């Protein structure tokens, strides 16, 4: 995975600094937007199933709320760090701004590994996280959501704990990503992956290409990758390779089948964490390749949809000459060094905080529905999502074309301008 020594927050700040120079932002605005407004770090003691008490470390970072309440997921991951949470909170600020929804950026996490925790232990972590941060979140201040290795079940435990602490009054708008029927929104599960494909569809149009006859290679087989693959194949594309993490072997593998992936067939041999059964995959005609092989495939489109720091200066040169588009389903998958290589290769990059903004956009829709206690049908949700993502793509592409910028820089120009303007309008700078 090559994440050793990598600092996501340093990368996020470098990306910001580059565009701050381009926009000639004043020093006060730079200082305000370069770091988080508020950070919380706390300990969560949990009595484990065997009777001993284990203490877990939790985080919540609120990067900027000039445009609205902070918004962002909660990760459960054994390698979670405060700098990763800081970076993700900053990216959430830009993500909300680039799709023009009235929210700011936040992120949370707990250092833990759900693979080795019972459901009861996970529930206690969720409730403990809320007890520590309840005074600093709320429908009008900071709205959490699921992220890596957290689910709608985790969200409903958190909501239940919060409501119990507030006299058992109902606060459905406190948290998003809830189960449908418990304040969740139809369409939320597929929203991030579908959003990636909505922007990919528009990118292909600008390149004079149709999805029909194109091929793709995908890194990751979690929620984002699964639904991106589902919609991409539905509009005519063919996925020939998927890379995912193998928990048993503690490494990643690439599963390749030249005839293409059947989404439902592959889902049938995948566990709840997105790991594909190697033996069963070989049995239905897949080749088993090293984890990084997804990047080197002869395809038109690459979709990194796993974790950060995956397309780097040391491996971007291995990308096939045929590749025309990189659609970033993951957060921070491409380093600034790799961006330069992709630019030289004239590869069209749909940057992460535009491509994967479908999730937060649909979370915003869920928040709106929860607060008014009226819920839309799935087709209405996805239609509104398509409209938002398409509009955001063209706003960024217009800046890219007009100012001769790569799409990532153009997306930052759009987003940072909107946030800086909100800070100025409030009189903060």
Describe the SSE topology.
Elements: H1 8-23, H2 27-34, E1 38-47, E2 53-64, E3 70-77, H3 82-98, E4 104-111, H4 119-133, E5 142-146, H5 152-165, H6 188-206, E6 215-219, H7 223-234, E7 238-246, E8 251-256, H8 263-267, H9 278-283, E9 287-290, E10 301-304, E11 325-327, H10 336-344, E12 348-350, H11 352-355, H12 358-372, H13 378-403, H14 407-425
Parallel strand pairs: 3-4, 3-5, 6-7, 6-10, 10-11, 11-12
Antiparallel strand pairs: 1-2, 2-4, 7-8, 8-9
Helix pairs in contact: 1-3, 1-14, 3-14, 4-5, 6-7, 6-12, 6-13, 12-13, 13-14
In words, what does this structure look like?
This protein is α/β, with parallel strands linked by helices and 429 residues long. It has two domains: 37-185, Leucine Dehydrogenase, chain A, domain 1 (Rossmann fold, 3-Layer(aba) Sandwich); 189-350, 3-Layer(aba) Sandwich (Rossmann fold). The protein has 14 helices and twelve strands. The chain has helices at residues 8-23, 27-34, 82-98, 119-133, 152-165, 188-206, 223-234, 263-267, 278-283, 336-344, 352-355, 358-372, 378-403, 407-425, and strands at 38-47, 53-64, 70-77, 104-111, 142-146, 215-219, 238-246, 251-256, 287-290, 301-304, 325-327, 348-350. The strands form two sheets. Strands 9-8-7-6-10-11-12 form a seven-stranded mixed β-sheet. Strands 1-2-4-3-5 form a five-stranded mixed β-sheet. Helix 10 (336-344) links the parallel strand 11 (325-327) and strand 12.
């Amino acid at each position: 995975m090559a994440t050793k020594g990598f600092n996501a927050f340093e990368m996020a700040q470098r990306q910001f600094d580059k565009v701050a120079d381009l926009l000639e932002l004043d020093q006060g605005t730079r200082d305000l937007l370069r770091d988080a407004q508020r950070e919380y770090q706390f300990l969560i003691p949990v009595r484990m199933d065997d009777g001993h008490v284990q203490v877990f470390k939790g985080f919540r970072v609120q990067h900027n709320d000039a445009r609205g309440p902070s918004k962002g997921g909660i990760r459960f991951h054994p390698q979670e760090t405060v700098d990763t949470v800081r970076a993700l909170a900053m990216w959430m600020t830009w993500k909300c701004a680039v799709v023009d929804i009235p929210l700011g950026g936040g992120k949370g996490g707990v250092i833990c590994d759900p693979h080795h925790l019972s459901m009861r232990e996970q529930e206690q972590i969720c409730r403990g996280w809320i007890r520590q941060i309840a005074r600093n979140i709320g429908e009008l201040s900071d709205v959490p959501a699921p992220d890596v290795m957290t689910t709608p079940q985790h969200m409903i435990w958190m909501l239940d704990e919060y409501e119990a602490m507030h006299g058992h009054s109902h606060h459905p708008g406190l948290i998003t990503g809830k189960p449908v029927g418990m304040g969740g929104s139809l369409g939320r599960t597929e929203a991030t992956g579908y959003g990636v494909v909505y922007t990919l569809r528009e990118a292909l149009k600008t390149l004079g290409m149709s999805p029909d006859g194109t091929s793709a290679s995908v890194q990751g087989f979690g929620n984002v990758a699964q639904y991106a693959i589902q919609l991409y194949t539905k509009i005519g594309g063919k996925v020939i390779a998927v890379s995912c993490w193998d928990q048993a072997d503690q490494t990643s593998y690439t599963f390749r089948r030249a005839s293409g992936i059947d989404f439902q067939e592959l889902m049938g041999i995948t566990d709840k964490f997105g790991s594909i059964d190697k033996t069963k995959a070989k049995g239905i005609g897949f080749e088993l390749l090293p984890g990084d092989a997804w990047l080197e495939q002869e395809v038109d489109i690459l979709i990194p949809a796993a974790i950060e720091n995956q397309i780097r200066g040391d491996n971007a040169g291995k990308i096939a000459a045929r590749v025309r588009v990189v659609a970033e389903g993951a957060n921070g998958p491409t380093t600034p060094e790799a961006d330069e290589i992709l630019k030289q290769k004239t590869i069209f990059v749909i940057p992460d905080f535009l491509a994967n903004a479908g999730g937060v956009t649909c979370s915003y829709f869920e928040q709106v529905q929860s607060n008014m206690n009226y819920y839309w049908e799935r087709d209405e949700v996805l239609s509104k999502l398509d409209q938002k993502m398409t509009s955001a793509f063209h706003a960024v592409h217009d800046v890219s074309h007009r100012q001769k910028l790569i799409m990532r820089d153009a997306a930052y120009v759009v987003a940072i301008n909107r946030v800086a303007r909100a800070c100025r309008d409030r009189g903060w700078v």
